[in-house]
Amino acid sequence: MKKPRRTNVPAHYIIDYIISAMLEPFFSPDRIAIIGASTDPNKMGSNVIRNIIGFGFKGDIYPVNRHALEIEGLRCFPSVKEIPGKADLAIIIIPAPGVAGVLRECGEVGIRHVIIQSGGFSETGPEGAEREKELQEMAREYRIRVLGPNCIGVIDTHTPLNTTFVLGTPQKGDIGFVSQSGAVVVSVMDWAQSKGIGFSRIATMGNQMDVSAMETIHAVAGNPNTRVITTYIEGIADGRKFLQVARDIALKKPFLALKGGQSEKGADAVSSHTGALSGSMEAWEAAFRKSGVLQVNNMQEMFDQARALAWQPLPAGRRVAILTNAGGFGILAVDALQKYGLEMAPLTDKTRSWLRERIPSAGSVNNPVDIVAGTGPATYALALDALLADETVDAVIVIQAPQDWFRQSSVAEVIGEGATLYRKPVITCLMGKTDAEETLALLHKRRIPNVAFPERAASILAVMDKRRQWLDAMKQSGELAAELAAEPASEVPADAARLIKKKDWEALAAAYGVPLPPQKTADTEEKAVRAAGKIGYPVALKLVSAKFTHKSDVGGIRLDLHSDDDVRRAWHEISAAADKAGADMQGVLVQKMLKGGQEVIIGIKQDAQFGGLVVFGTGGTEVELYKDVCTAIAPLDPVEAARLIDGTVAGRKLQGWRNMPPRDRKAVTDILIRMSQIAANHPEIAEMEMNPLYVLEDGNGAFALDIRGSSS
Amino acid sequence: MKKPRRTNVPAHYIIDYIISAMLEPFFSPDRIAIIGASTDPNKMGSNVIRNIIGFGFKGDIYPVNRHALEIEGLRCFPSVKEIPGKADLAIIIIPAPGVAGVLRECGEVGIRHVIIQSGGFSETGPEGAEREKELQEMAREYRIRVLGPNCIGVIDTHTPLNTTFVLGTPQKGDIGFVSQSGAVVVSVMDWAQSKGIGFSRIATMGNQMDVSAMETIHAVAGNPNTRVITTYIEGIADGRKFLQVARDIALKKPFLALKGGQSEKGADAVSSHTGALSGSMEAWEAAFRKSGVLQVNNMQEMFDQARALAWQPLPAGRRVAILTNAGGFGILAVDALQKYGLEMAPLTDKTRSWLRERIPSAGSVNNPVDIVAGTGPATYALALDALLADETVDAVIVIQAPQDWFRQSSVAEVIGEGATLYRKPVITCLMGKTDAEETLALLHKRRIPNVAFPERAASILAVMDKRRQWLDAMKQSGELAAELAAEPASEVPADAARLIKKKDWEALAAAYGVPLPPQKTADTEEKAVRAAGKIGYPVALKLVSAKFTHKSDVGGIRLDLHSDDDVRRAWHEISAAADKAGADMQGVLVQKMLKGGQEVIIGIKQDAQFGGLVVFGTGGTEVELYKDVCTAIAPLDPVEAARLIDGTVAGRKLQGWRNMPPRDRKAVTDILIRMSQIAANHPEIAEMEMNPLYVLEDGNGAFALDIRGSSS
To answer: Do B433 and A332 count as a contact with CB atoms less than 8 A apart?
Structure first.
């Protein structure tokens, strides 16, 4: 008998699972109390109860209103205390001053889940914040989980439950949506209806006085009906928690995010809007990359891509075939694929000759395959099958310009049927208004996303490919780490705290295993000569002075010294320069003179939202001007370090360029990881930077020639 | 009595006007012969005649068909020769082999305008090309202007005339559309119907055997009903003609272009598609910039922007105010504005305090102005008026998230009325499906474009701003040119041809007024010392050898020589190095040693489609790696030269950066213009490049240290 296989589930998975399970009553309660239910159609309390009933909630509904006997045909209760069976979810929609009283009553009768939709709390100013604090303490006292206040509640299309006041019914589907803005949810629901986009769960978080953004995202993403999670995020309280939760989710399901407040001005609007703190955009982008979250630019893109990711398999590679009945659209699709970094599938000779016999002679059997105007569903069926069967094809875009010879719906049906025979993504762009509704219905039935213009199909495939690459990279991470000769120390060196206090950044870097060039300080001419002899010529001499950190500005550097005499002369020149500049010369640093290397910069800094960041790029004095740098969140694993390097021109140059030899990229990767450990281990270091890190030819290592830092 | 003011109309304006007038019968004929008209609904000849009748053409229609007596109730003729009154436009829709015969008949009866919609010509291969050549000769013989073959004809919504076979009627409007692809027209018409986009004229060009792309664009753009011209272009025959015509049009009307075949692969598809030659993308982008054509990325963008440019005034500046009832969308709009380089209007204190008294206390009177949920048309009316009246506001985006308290159509009506009081653009983003149709109708009546999400409003305003800037730059061009001290020679220097033949690029540059550093060649040590003394120390010595152009590779350069002794030593070192490398030392170039300058590159090259190009950017050995270069079409005027410089990091660095002083930007502008003259005057120079052009501090000039070239 085999032993049952044991899977290694990290502890935080289990904790998050429990938290998410504890939030279930928000989405699938059995008995709901609606405090503030109303018969007055001008009040939100009227819309909410009508939505709950109208959406088909199957459990018990208890309207609570002191002044009514019956609402929407249901018996009404003067308070939650009078409800016979205990409700497991209460919704509060009464004016702010009364909320505390009814929340206490909920606590007293043992209701553990409450959605406060009322506004008038921390979003309005100090007085409201005071009120919110009172609610927070009360929630803690009675152990009530509270969603809101100042939110529009939740929707679960499968329960079904709709606690919002918004008219209009979202379609059942597999996209989960969590939004920091209620208005964004309202308009997305509105817009999605006409686009065939269906939802599993939708949740808004309001002021997050208790249930956090990450908990809400977890509850929506963790739901089995959710295949893709979409989010509108302005700012979050705990960046590190976001990284962990988002990555856990993204490993299982595609996670799309639209970040509001990207610009400086946008960030201003965020603070005045929800009071949430928005981190710098580079940090957010790095966080999305690290956790596998797919960042989108706008709403349309988010749901275009969500639908495709929910419906279609991921492509195995980036080679796309285009099938079209109009050359112009083939060209536009090729342009878009190129723009998004995808490739044209070459197609096998077999495919081409097979197609040649079956499409009009005016058509093209090279990719894009152009079956020209006048062809119909039969030709589409044959060509699509040939392309999907071709091993050089990873995905297919099917385009049909409007035509009057065949019903477009027949083409839709043919594509829907043909695509199911293969595990390759198919995106259509069937244009034409004649039987558009039937066409869309047939495509959606087969889970084929249709777009209005070919460019959008390319953008969808690009995001699918990005996700595939990230999942592949996640698998690789473990393997690559093993390959690296020296596993970097993740433990904190014994004397790290002391070195940081002393601001001895060189020693700290060395303690973490960052290689410094052979070097020695010397406080007399004789000692300098001896040090040079020991290190071996050629050497460089650098002024040591507490007053001047930019030594070159005062003439405090002498390079490429080849003899004892050179060193003596350099000593005197530096002394004279120091005197002239009024520097307190404490001696010189005698450093092995390195040559023929490439200068890169590695920096670390702390971000308010995500903690330690690592920056890599082209080094030198013009770093800020050319901005050839990329940012990542610390700590880095080898795959992340490699991606950080590859994101820059400096990284491409490391691989060798023109008559320059390839440099020691492996050494750079290693040092990047070590620096990222420093960033992760020491939040008290505000900034630390080696500029340049001097990278020698492959196999000869890289050395930090100048290290600076500052601590908080 | 005042003299009548004489306007300076360039000759090509008049010629183009005449050409365009001569094409009028294609769009507004009086009597049309339809050769190939058919009663068989499966033939295009049936669709065409039904479209001409159905679209309401008011002139005479003569179906020509040997086998029918009557088609669609009209008397049918066996040939054009039998038609009683002469037709002024003939449309041919019969199979390719018969086309030549009927074209000759058209010629014989004196028809001077023919649209050949039949396919089967040069687009299908050599046999078809042969047939097309025959038609071309015949057209020349009879002086017939031919549109096509292989096109879908034209539409004029005002005549009204629709010669296409496409079902569906485009709406009357003010957008002109010219497309190199018939399929693109078909799908755009189809899609535009549901978006409230109307057209003045639409034309397709097919194989352009006679009437060219530029003539067609001219005829559509020149029509008084056209307020904006949109084009789908794959490739054109005469790039220089495009530049001239496009600029003339763009000075009068906004000109939008979607370029198909941008990518390498896309360009492949172009050649196999229409046989047209597609230039390199950089050249196209430069051509669009030079001629004021607004380049778009896709169809949706093109018509989004066309509608706005047709309907709304241009903004006077780039400061935008946002009016919203939902904070989240305000944030997304701000993000998008920032992304597109627009600014947030600061708003005056007066506006803010006026608004403070009129909007809910939870709202924000800072830009974005948030009037929060629950407000309706009255609040929108007040806030919009306050923003439009504010002198710090150049344009307004009005956003409404869906809400149930007020009819959205009332908000639409309020905005439409309020916007007409000011000459500032207003773009709306009213979301909500309830009375969407009525809302759109009301907005369109007032010529207000509405978009689905705020990002698109920002992209529209960005393009409007781009057009305003280009028009401003056109005005400036003349003024700036006058400011420049030395008007560059546009005449060809007398000995230019000889210098090009000798490949003496330095002398050629000098003949065009490009400053070289003080320098002198010397073929002996003594002459070198004398030359150095004359030039003044410090100097540099550079090996002169026919064999080695890259002198530094063989140790052929010695810099920063301060004395006669230095020069002698350098002479011997260079001699030794030349010997060792096997170079035929002809002497040395003694050059004034320049210091503290910035290295930039200026290059010129020839493009197959647009002729001379000028490239500017960061110089040095790593030009290709950092790719900090921009391209423009030669010749340059001062404004174009300034824009070319500003498009690069090198240009920003010229203005001074950190502790670097501002450099002589004016000298760079002057040299750029001179180099552009060389590119324009000498197409036989394939490439010529100065790397580096050494730019000294402001007022001290710039010197070409190394010039290379190659000629065809």
So the answer is: no
- Please report, as a single letter, which amino acid is at residue A561: L
Residue B398, beta-bridge partner list:
B323, B428
Residue B651 burial (10 A CB sphere; 0-12, 13-18, 19+):
buried
DSSP A300-333: HHHHHHHHHHHHSPPPSSSEEEEEES-HHHHHHH
Q: Is B373 on the interface with A (CB under 8 A)?
A: yes
Chain B hits for A123, Cβ within 8 Å: 362
Tell me how many residue pairs between chain A and chain B have CB atoms under 8 A apart.
221
Residue of B nearest to A180 (CA): B328
Say if pTM beats, i.e. exceeds, 0.90. no
- CATH architecture of structural domain B518-592: 2-Layer Sandwich (3.30)
Cis before A63 (ω within 30): no
What is the ipTM for the molecules in this complex?
Answer: 0.80
Secondary element (H or E) of residue A452: none
Q: What is d(CA B47, CA A655) in angstroms, rounded to the nearest whole number? A: 61
> Is A264 close to B337, i.e. CB distance below 8 A?
no
Domain boundaries, chain A: 20-226, 314-448+450-467, 518-592, 598-711
Q: Is A188 on the interface with B (CB under 8 A)?
A: no
Does the distance separating the beta carbons of A652 and B190 come in below 8 Å?
no
Give the closest of A123, A270, A652 to B331, CB-based: A270
Give the model's pLDDT for residue B377.
Answer: 94
Contacting residues of A for B95, CB less than 8 Å apart: none
Contacts of A388 (CB under 8 A, 6+ apart): A396, A418, A419, A421, A422, A424, A426
The secondary structure element, H or E, covering residue B242 is helix B239-252
Residues A557-583 have pLDDT tens digits of 888 898 999 999 999 999 998 888 887
Chain B residue numbers with beta carbons less than 8 Å from the beta carbon of A369 are none
**CATH of the structural domain A314-448+450-467, one choice from 3.40.30.80, 3.40.50.300, 3.40.640.10, 3.40.50.261:** 3.40.50.261
Residues B48, B91 contacting (CB under 8 angstroms): yes
What Cα–Cα distance (Å) separates residue A19 from each residue in A24, A25, A32, B11, B303? 9, 12, 21, 79, 49
**How many other C-beta atoms are found inside a 10 Å radius of the C-beta of residue B501?**
11
Q: Determine if the peptide bond prior to A538 is cis (ω within 30°).
A: yes
Return the structure tokens found at B698: 């402001």
**pLDDT for res B656:** 86
Query: Which pLDDT tens digit goes with each residue over A474-527?
Result: 887 766 555 554 454 468 888 999 999 988 999 999 999 999 999 999 999 999
Tokens encoding A146: 């509270």
Count CB-CB contacts under 10 A for residue A358: 15
Of B171, B311, B310, B306, nearest to B227 (Cα)?
B310
B432 touches chain A (CB under 8 A): yes
- Which chain A residues in 47-66 lie under 8 Å from chain B, judged by CB atoms? 47
Strands A294-295 and B519-522, bridge-based pairing? unpaired
Superfamily of domain B598-711: ATP-grasp fold, B domain (3.30.470.20)
- From CA A613, how far away is CA A680, in angstroms rounded? 8
Please count the other Cβ atoms lying within 10 Å of the Cβ belonging to residue B712: 8
A649 touches chain B (CB under 8 A): yes
Alpha-carbon span A649 to B440, nearest angstrom: 48
CA-CA distance, B363 to B356, in Å (whole number)?
A: 8
Chain B contact for A169, CB < 8 A? Answer: no
Q: Say which of A373, A625, A653 has its CB closest to residue B653.
A: A625
Instruction: Tell whether the torsion through CA atoms of B241, B478, B256 and B259 is positive or negative.
Output: positive
Q: What residue type is A80 in one-letter code?
A: V
